[in-house]
Design brief:
With about 250 residues, the protein is α/β, with parallel strands linked by helices. About 40% of the residues lie in helices and about 15% in strands. Strands 3-4-2-5-1-6-7-8 form an eight-stranded mixed sheet, sandwiched between helices. The N and C termini lie far apart (about 35 Å). Bound molecules: adenosine-5'-triphosphate (ATP) and magnesium ion.
Length: about 250
């Protein structure tokens, strides 16, 4: 039976989608069957980011009761499965986000882990992603505004009985003014599961409609996502290449 993990933040643009796709693919490298679901129903980014945006059947068809979820599952070249949402504005008013949990239930038998990329804010879409998840991971940037919104997301998820298992800090630059992981742990009272540095390879990857873990597997952000996957699974991190091993060994990331 799959573990459903919601990737949330409350604040927009902190790195939820980047985390959902790269973490999802990193988990496949540890032998897990993974489905990445675009739970951002009005402004979906997962399909575009993975090069599967224009598909015949998408999540909106399933939410509208016109298709079954199995018909909206596509395989990415990495081996991860993807459920893209519709990028058409015409589909926005047609669906009821509260049906998300029920629509995703059949994925339980298809995967070990289902990652749900949540929408920003704490409205109906984010609520639907929380309700469909067994556990939550909150993404934040290392600044006080993002962390304040991360706290809101954690508390909001608690209202639905959903525990946040930890926090991912993305786009760290190592500036003196940045909040450090220990401070973020203290403020949020949750463990930091991973730290992903600011990395220009992320944007290069996006321009190729592929995640950084596939296009630049030895980059600092890709290595961070592989370490994160190992941490979430409670396994030892295994570098995939000699370059990766050296970068990790000498703490070059
Ligand atoms: N580690 C990183 N280094 C550099 N750029 C990054 C990194 N992580 C994310 N980005 C960039 O930051 C922007 C926002 O990232 P992303 O779309 O993942 O955030 P989001 O939280 O999903 O946003 P939204 O709330 O709009 O859904 C994107 O342009 C992405 O390419
Ligand atoms: Mg997003």
């Amino acid at each position: 039976m799959a573990r459903f993990i919601g990737i949330l933040s409350a604040k927009g643009g902190v790195g939820k989608t980047t985390t959902s796709i790269n973490l999802g693919i990193a988990l496949t490298k540890y032998g897990k069957r993974v489905v990445i679901v675009d739970g951002n129903l009005t402004t979906p980014n997962v399909g575009v980011s993975l090069g599967v945006a224009s598909v015949p059947v998408h999540l909106h068809h399933v939410l509208a009761g016109k298709k079954k979820i199995k018909d909206a599952v596509y395989q990415h070249e990495s081996g991860a499965l993807v459920v893209p949402a519709s990028i058409s504005v015409h589909d926005i008013g047609e669906i009821n986000p509260s049906r998300l949990k029920r629509c995703l239930t059949p994925l339980k038998r298809m995967a070990d882990i289902v990652i749900i990329d949540g929408a920003a804010g704490l409205g109906a879409e984010a609520t639907a992603a929380i309700k469909a998840s067994d556990e939550i991971i909150v993404v934040t940037n290392p600044d006080i505004l993002a962390v304040a919104d991360a706290l809101k997301a954690i508390k909001f998820a608690e209202k639905f009985g959903k525990e946040t298992i930890g926090v991912i800090v993305t786009r760290t630059k190592g500036d003196k003014v940045e909040l450090k992981p220990k401070e973020i742990e203290r403020l949020l009272e949750k463990p930091v599961l991973g730290v992903v540095p600011e990395d220009k390879c992320v944007k290069k990857a996006l321009s190729k409609r592929n995640p950084v873990i596939s296009t630049h597997p030895n980059s600092s952000s890709a290595i961070a996502y592989k370490k994160l996957a190992a941490n979430i699974l409670g396994e030892n991190y295994k570098p995939e290449s000699f370059v990766e091993f050296v970068k990790d060994y000498f703490k070059l990331i």
